[in-house]
Amino acid sequence: MKYDFDEIIDRTGTNAMNTDGFRQYIFNATEDMKFPFKDEEFIRMWIADMEFATPPEIREAVKERLDRKIMGYSQVFDPAYYEAVSNWMNRYYDWSFPKEHLETSHGIIPALYELVEYICKPNEKVLIVTPSYGFFKSAAEHNHLELVCSDLINEQGHYSIDFADFEAKASDEQVTLCIFCNPHNPSGRVWTTEELQRVGEICLKYNVWVISDEIHCDLLRTGRKHTPLAKLFPDTDRIVTCMSPSKTFNMAGLMFSNVIIANEGLRTIWQTRHYGFKNPLSIAATQAAYEHGDEWLKQLKTYLDDNFAFVDQYVKRDLPQAVFHIPEATYLAWIDIRAYVPKDVNLPLFFAEQAGVLLEDGHMFVANGGGCIRLNLACPRSVLEEGLRRISTVLVNKSESEPVQV
Ligand SMILES: Cc1ncc(COP(=O)(O)O)c(C/N=C2\CONC2=O)c1O
């Protein structure tokens, strides 16, 4: 079956953050914030969900569950769920874990909030690398814990871990947890096994728990390989792995993720305190994703590869002073445009008001992201082309950017 990633889907009136939540999320404003563009005129490249239809196989599974007519209190009881998850992990990552280690959550963000509370004591600290997904900071703040940031080294847009700094911060006795993102949002790095080995060894050396947030792991550029951190450390139970098909298959709204907890004590706390009932439609969708999502994902990855190639050519041609590298994973383009804009410009506001493009910038990624914008490329090529045209027009004051042939 050939899936249509060029389809333009109207999301208005669906309570989508993407169309209706940007004023509050990006600008911390109320709904009456006015722009020179109508809401429906914006090119939306901000929040990380996709403009592509959730795969038909998943939607079919949800419909089948609906046809059972009753949607009562539910949990994951059917062993087929674990089989589906386990088979996926074996097929894609050559990784397996015992059934009893698998817990589920109402999304990874809620899992982070809970796990930080269950792992850390008051006055302890949480270590992250920066720039970072903003909710890693929120998870520490929600639990009134100090956040410790280790800035990634940025060499002309190539990001790497500053291991000297990372180890120095991990050695702080009050640092008891590292929330680690692999693949990394927003840089798109897929950490190598050598880098992962060093992260794990440093954390274990200083008794630092690791929550390995691997939500983007299926969204690899063709040819790239993801290694679950826990796979490299089979003898420890202090790595918690968070994964979900929600990012992969555009179903974040179903609020369902997997949390693999090897440590028995932590798992007991989770089972005691986590609200266990789950949405039966989310269970059905997630299981279907892992059972039937392979072909859609294969075609999605090709489409995203082509979108990234297009952006790469476009930036090289129209924004030659920008710094951009095709990321190893995610559908997010992280572009350093500081050569085009003064330091103190509010980039999301600038692009919303001047270009009618909704995007996120480095200030939304905790630290160490100044001068960068992040574009969501999980959209039809026609939308991407218009978004890039608008961005380059306002940045280089060009009358009309020539279309880049890819
Ligand atoms: C690293 C990471 N962890 C967790 C989540 C959210 O997990 P959920 O609660 O949906 O299961 C995201 C979504 N990232 C987003 C969502 O919008 N913009 C982003 O960068 C993410 O990038």
UniProtKB/TrEMBL annotation:
InterPro entries documented for this protein: Aminotransferase_I/II_large, C-S_lyase_PatB-like, Class-II_PLP-Dep_Aminotrans, PyrdxlP-dep_Trfase, PyrdxlP-dep_Trfase_major, PyrdxlP-dep_Trfase_small
Cofactor: pyridoxal 5'-phosphate
Name of the top EC class for this enzyme: lyase
PANTHER family: PROTEIN MALY (PTHR43525)
GO molecular function terms listed in the Swiss-Prot or TrEMBL record: transaminase activity
Keywords annotated in UniProt: Aminotransferase, Lyase, Pyridoxal phosphate, Transferase
Protein name: cysteine-S-conjugate beta-lyase
Species assigned in the record: Paenibacillus vandeheii
Protein family: Belongs to the class-II pyridoxal-phosphate-dependent aminotransferase family. MalY/PatB cystathionine beta-lyase subfamily.
